[in-house]
Amino acid sequence: MRRFERYEKVEHLLYEQLIDTDVLIWYLRGNPKAYQLIHGMGTFCISSVTYMELVQGMRNKEELRTLQKIFKQWGVKTLYVSEEISARALFLVEEYFLSHSMELADALIAATALQYGMKLITANDKHYRIVEALEIEIFRA
Question: How far is residue 91's CA from residue 88's CA, in Å, rounded to a whole number?
């Protein structure tokens, strides 16, 4: 298995930022700082893991349709888990689960940001700061 000690950027997109699930949850709860951040940044990406986490928090189909409509209006790009992202996430879990409790969803989101060379915007910096090569921007609600 290939090790990703250097976390080289493999692919490049026009997008520079990946938004973590927690920031979008703050937005959906009406947080003014999250609103300002999201509307001030233009286009951004999310991991398919983030999308699935948000869907799991929906209470009904109407909320799901509203989420889909908002993402379409914003031009959100969803990045799917590829073999490369999966391999990076596997490395992160091997490296950091026992020492720092790195969870699967966080590993996949971090691996997505690393794969595309993107900055991860998150309020959960403790979940990600252990990954030295990962550029994070901390959001505070």
Answer: 5
Whole-model pTM above 0.85? yes
Whether the per-residue pLDDT at 92 is higher than 80: the answer is yes
pLDDT in tens, 100-135: 999 999 999 999 999 999 999 999 988 899 999 999
Question: The CATH number of the domain where 42 resides is what?
Answer: 3.40.50.1010
21: Cβ contacts below 8 Å, ≥ 6 apart: 46, 49, 50, 53, 54, 105, 109
The answer to whether residue 100 is domain-embedded is yes
Residue range(s) defining the domain that contains residue 108 = 17-138
